[in-house]
Amino acid sequence: MIDVFTFNENIKKGILNNCYLFCGIDEQLMKDGINSIINKVLDKTFMDLNYVKFDGSTLESFEPVVNACETLPFMSDKKVVLVYRANFFQEDKNDNVFNRIYEYASNLPDYCILIFYDVFKSKRDKPGKKIYKLDKRACVVKADKIKGQQLEGKIKSFFEARGKQIGRIELKVFSTLMDENNLNIIENEVEKLCCYTYEKSITKEDIKELFLKSNDDDIFDLVNPISQKKVKEAIEVLNELIYRGEKIPYILNMIERQFNRLFRVKMLLENKKNKQDIMKELNIRSDYACDIIIGQSKKFTLKQLEHALQLCLDCEQKLKSSTVNGKTEIELLVINTITG
Description:
By secondary structure, the protein is an alpha/beta fold. 59% of the residues lie in helices and 9% in strands.
């Protein structure tokens, strides 16, 4: 059994196995690992023909997976078969499916990479006997939340990928302010810090000023992926806010407030107002904050911002009804502001 860092190093070295099982509580780490395999062995041109997925939570028989594995790849040396949320590795689940997997794992065709992932329900869950048994015939990757030096190493790699250096002390300060539950959000924060410091060195003061967070920063994190039309990332940020205990009506109020500010900025820009005019009109004190909101406003048309504000009003009306699911309504709002 190996950790995600050993796995990543193996992938970089071109060390690949025919069968993988990712297990743990961090589903995003598992997905990242699976994507690294896919990017290594599959041509995007023929991805749809050589990448087959099964929902493990609904799989009653393993034979459809075997059939997919036995089918030759199309215009490729490899194909990938994924069984996601494969809960039959848990001790109280179907032994027949597991036994078939264990038997087949050592007989996979050379051209096929078979991948499973099993998301544990809580931090208390540990790999059981089935997983340890499969570890003899497959590569088992433990995907847990990363902390301490491992987290710092991952964050440092995000800075290096952007050509930015960060000192050891500054890296430790930055890491302590991050929520290790979501690497996507951390990477977004790295991007923000790189933009903020631009060509100068990163200092502790920069980090504290930027990440001792205010409510506006939280909504920036949500509206930014909305402005970039990234549905998945926007929903992840929204879920993170809800997970941290923010109430749905409060989140809606902050989203509506931010879209209202973007609308006002857009109107000022179309009326040929400069940055100083915008800062005075909206009472924005920071040049950086003004640059951010101007950049976000340019990702929308006036019509789109008007539509987003109307969606906020509609959502507010729906939330006043006790019959609707608040989380679902706010998710639909985020999706509709991107796709509408």
